[in-house]
Amino acid sequence: AAHAEDVFCSYFGTKAIAATCVTILVKVFTNTHVVILMAFIALVLMDLATKQVALGSKCVAMQKGVDVSEVPTIDKIRGIAPAFRAKFIKSRLMVNGLCDKMSVYFVAVVCAKITDVVIFNTPDSFMLNLMYSYLGAVECLSILVNMRDAGSKTVGRFVELAENKIMNKLK
User: Fold this and answer.
1) Which pTM does this prediction carry?
2) Pairwise CA distance, residues 136 & 127, whole Å
């Protein structure tokens, strides 16, 4: 019994701090808004990755003298590194794009939340959900546009259909 007590009590302060940190992390990462933020970050990173594939595809297509849709998928991915070396893809623009998008999204979501509090005075309201939906849809459409630009004809037809429907609604 004495041995068990020694094991339990040794490093008790460290164990207490570790347990507190884990509890805080679990609470933070299970918060709905944090999960949505992580999803937005994933969407933006996917958008940037598909943009690099699209630019790499164009670089390979220009080198081979073919249409982008004729470049095999593996060559599109392999084309990213040569596109960087040829300055076809600029790293600074990609980093700035990530920072710009995330800062705009943060401001938009905060404004939506403040608007909800001012208008409805409730914790989860219409404007915040609308902003989440809009930003998610914009990122999804951007990813599909990048896939179209990388030569995907199937996605290209879907993007054209979506763009036509959006433009018809705006007229």
Assistant:
1) 0.66
2) 14
Give the chain's residues under pLDDT 70: 1-9, 93-95, 121-124, 170-171
C-alpha–C-alpha distance, residues 5 and 7, integer Å = 5
* Residue 125 DSSP code: -
Cα separation, 128 vs 18, whole angstroms: 34
Looking up tokens 């979501």 gives 109
Do the beta carbons of residue 109 and residue 128 sit within 8 Å?
A: yes
- Which tokens go with 9? 């009590």
Structure tokens belonging to residue 107:
């401001």
**Which one, of 112, 135, 134, lies nearest residue 125 by Cα?**
112
Least Cα distance to 94 among 146, 33, 150, 152 occurs for 146
